[in-house]
Amino acid sequence: MSSNTRAPGAQQKRLAAYLDSLAQAAGHADRRVPFQSYCTGLLLPGERKSVEPMAARLAPDNVRRMHQSLHHFVADAPWSDEAVLDRALDTVLPAMLGQGPVVAWVVDDTGFPKKGQHSVGVTRQYCGQMGKQENCRVAVSLSVTTEASSMPVAFQLYLPEVWSEDKTRRRKAGVPEEVSFRTKPQIALAQIRRARERGIPEGVILTDAGYGTDTKFRTELTEMGMPYVVGIMSSVSVWKPQQMPQPAKKWEGKGRPTKLLRRDPDHPPVALKELALSLPPEAWKAVAWRQGVKRKLRSRFAALRVRPAHRDYWRSEPHPEEWLLIEWPKQEKEPTKYWFSTLPADTSLMGLIRLAKHRWIIERDYEELKQELGLGHFEGRGWRGFHHHATLCIAAYGFLVAERNRFSPSARAGQLALSATALPPGFEPRGRPRRQRTA
């Protein structure tokens, strides 16, 4: 018998063992069956991964009973999301490390377009999926990455102030009392601290400009001893190379001693865009950093050592010097991306670029989590259900990550050795776009 023939049975056994281990982390023994059923439903082929269509695939002869079981488990049962993700990581991380060390921890947020006003966290805000302000909810995540793969290890809904201050909506959505308003960078910092306490092998922190532009976020990473390569906005101010603020005025023996730094009107800090445009042609280097789908990815970059200038007139010491990396594609009229980095001063240009561009790796995670495992398909309105559904999606995805690293690089949801039972005749799940009527 060929290995291909044996593989499906072996894979099913690995999946069963994995889900059984995770179900134990969910607590009571009576949660084992719905836990395994829910994760199996997420991994099965199917267009919609909300509770109702999954129940129909899993138990077409008794959809109502399966629906009740799955709905209670995801929306009401008080199991710990962190405990389940920790248990998933116990299996997934060793498989990832078998192919190479941890390279980075990636902070990101993802949006879920949603109509109405009563689903937890939904308000009009920027939605990355839509690329504009839209009615949606947004969740902050932290992913651990190696050179070849990645895995989300933390996932939490961002609760806007209009929600955190609305006692009525909080109560209806079941938002825990201890959850107060926190900015996205504050949520990310809490996730990073917990990941360190968990003992996950550390990597360089990578973020986009939504986080990197926050000076307090960068400062706290430095205080934790976590190096970073973070996107920043072109309007951020810095001191030109070899420049810095002036020291405090010399105390003349009267009044309170002065400690605050000063700025020289003749040599003020400049915005990043202004600095980038002033660089000489020889500062820009053409670099290919990765093989793309059809060709190598190339662009022009410049890297220099600078000091951030943000509100340093309220400081007694200048901000430490760090890397500024700038990308200016040849076909563009001006630079397009900027990064700050606290990597060592002897880091090569290629080293900076590869880490700055390493964030691309989590795009595959969220593409599969949303399109194949139904991360955005949960139809409930509550805090607990939203997080439970996301945790189960990530846990199911973790099995695919482990399979790719240990056995099959091409493993995908819907292509496992699992078979779905035919849906009941005429079954149309809620949430599915209505078919257009023919004339």
User: How many β-strand runs?
Assistant: 12
The poorly predicted ranges are 1-7, 433-439
Radius of gyration: 25 Å
Order of helices and strands: HHHHHEEEEHHHEHHEEEHEEEEHHH
Question: What would the average pLDDT be, to the nearest integer?
Answer: 89
Structural class: alpha+beta
What profile does the largest beta sheet have?
12 strands, mixed
Number of helices: 14
Looking at the structure, what is the overall shape? globular
**Helical percent range?**
25-40%
Strand content: 15-25%
Distance between the termini: 54 Å
Task: Describe the overall structure.
The chain is of the alpha+beta class and 439 residues long. Among the domains are: 1-97 and 379-427, no CATH class; 230-249 and 257-359, no CATH class. Helices cover 37% and strands 19% of the residues. The chain has 14 helices and twelve strands. Strands 1, 2, 3, 4, 5, 6, 7, 8, 9, 10, 11 and 12 form a twelve-stranded mixed β-sheet that branches. A hairpin with a 4-residue loop joins strand 2 and strand 3 (132-145). The termini are far apart.
SSE layout:
Blueprint: H1 3-25, H2 32-43, H3 51-58, H4 63-75, H5 81-97, E1 104-113, E2 123-127, E3 132-145, E4 150-158, H6 161-164, H7 167-173, H8 184-198, E5 204-207, H9 209-212, H10 215-223, E6 228-232, E7 237-239, E8 270-271, H11 272-278, E9 285-291, E10 296-308, E11 322-327, E12 337-341, H12 349-356, H13 361-371, H14 383-406
Parallel strand pairs: 1-5, 5-6
Antiparallel strand pairs: 1-3, 2-3, 3-4, 6-12, 7-8, 7-10, 9-10, 10-11, 11-12
Helix pairs in contact: 1-2, 1-5, 2-3, 2-14, 3-4, 5-14
